[in-house]
């Protein structure tokens, strides 16, 4: 399969590109900079220059492909306005990609987060949130899945709060960055809230499986660790960086504060049973031992 991918140089994307190539797919990847283009070419991918806001480039990439994996998302989360802009850009991109593929029966795999369900781990059948700080992502992914009735094998892989590799990435990575910046390994609330996690290399396998065989209109959970307590995550960070570990106000985490403070475990039981996905890499707490002081 010739696969068009956006976000192919990120923590998840670079692992997905390698996984696809290893299984004899070919890859056309969107690159917004010379550095990204060089990294993708070195990995063995073909390159299409452009960025997520370049809808003509997205349509061109999709038109040349047998399937699409959409991973790109803005990197500026410093303010609610920046997060909203990133979500709006992603929504426009998914709309353009979906419209290009309608009627072709080709697959497109979008990415979102696992939903929050009070009192229990979320499952693949739970709906994505459509309000709140990231509600726009839920609306755009849901709209893409709804195109399954229009000749599009649209699917979604829901990612946990931390996608990690060598102690880096995801919400845990943001805690590491904040600890380095402030001199405190902090966590919001009482620290008992749980975050699900997955190793990037395990997640990449799931993206390939979903691209190859998942039915139209379905959602899947890339969850290896159902939920690690945030205080435990902060404790490992503090030990690795030789910093004190303590509760700090959720407001100190900016627009992600309310999300950081939520208990949000997630299950992948259906995903494992239906697709035969078996994550095998290090769990989050073990992987955080790779943080360099």
From TrEMBL:
Domain of life: Bacteria
Region (Disordered): 115-135, 270-293
Residues annotated as domain NAD-dependent epimerase/dehydratase: 3-215
UniProt-listed InterPro entries: Epimerase_deHydtase, NAD(P)-bd_dom_sf, NAD(P)-dependent_oxidoreduct
Pfam families for this protein: Epimerase (PF01370)
One cellular component term from this protein's GO annotations in UniProt: cytoplasm
Sequence ranges of Basic and acidic residues compositional bias: 284-293
Gene Ontology molecular-function annotations: aldehyde dehydrogenase (NAD+) activity
Protein name per its UniProtKB record: 3-beta hydroxysteroid dehydrogenase
